[in-house]
Write a structure and sequence with these properties.
The protein is of the alpha/beta class. Helix content is 35%, strand content 17%. It is built from eleven helices and 13 strands. The protein has a six-stranded mixed beta sheet, with helices on both faces. α7 runs parallel beside α10.
Amino acid sequence: MIRNRNIPMPVRCMLWGRAAGRCEFMGCNRPVSWHPKTKETVNLADVSHIIGFSEDGPRGEDELSEELAKDIDNLMLVCRICHKNIDANRDNYTVDRLRQMKQAHESRIDVVSGIDRERSSHVLLYGANVGEHSSSLTFQKAAWAMLPDWYPAENLAISLGMVNSSFHDAEEDFWKIEKNQLQNLINQRVRPRLANGDISHLSIFGLAPQPLLMLLGFLLSDIPAAETYQFHREPPDWKWQDNSEGFEYVVQYPSEFRGDAALVLSLSATITDERVKAILGNSATVWRVTVSEPNNDFLKSKEQLRKFRETIRPLMDQIKAQHGEQAVVYVFPAVPVAIAVDFGRVIMPKADLPLRIYDENKSLGGFFHTLDLDAGLRLTGDTA
């Protein structure tokens, strides 16, 4: 029997629209309307049948092939390389697997194309070495985490981290170099665009030692509209998860107020009073923010991050009221990256006390002073 295998033009047009002119094979996603190297306009697309057109072809079924030959739900838009791969390795690419690829691709396109202009956000990436581990932030992972609430305003991120830095956080020069670099890049790449209205919203992704993430948030402030993201270990991505019902932060207030004011953020791990007083002396007054079970993957939802901001803001006022206008707050953090950034963002340099930020480094024997956050830092750029 001779079958007509020509796919009608309206069906082809609808398939191109559903696929957004990109290969639907999972992990490919390359555009098929222009050459990736020369950028010349050219049709590089094939239309692949999920259930084959003929019974002796790949995934062919004699009973269904005729009626599904022109059905858009049985068609995938693919580049020619992926089309050949699908047909040459038919055992690896079953009907069910190809249907899953098609559904995932077209669902993603539907989500992205359904977001309006008001939801555009500039991706800001900041990475610095943590111990012996370098940052591995990517624009692609960040862009996926933003959807469907936001979508990238540009196809490149605003990158503030040093690339392939040879310095590590146990070295004295690391902190000075990273602080100055971050200050300079924010002044060059972010503040002018905020001032002229080019940037209306930021999506912030950071992987760096906690004091530097606090500095990042402090320099950005809470004036620009922004959303900060958290890297999760399970599952390993940046996408916010559902709200955690009944979650609350616990504020532990000191019984008396004398000596230096220490703010302990004991969220990712437990920080004991003894470790703080080993630095500040036994007379230090310890204010603590913690959770019922401190661990390094507790922060799952935007609601938890919002609650932290709402917790820390009045606490800073209370510390100032008890310790006076001339005091300094010594901060000992064990927090997720998003909380480190947003801690810096909510600090009000003209109203809050100056902050002296510590970091724990086992190779140096415990906590040590890294940097200070105060009003002069935002105004002058002095990170000494």
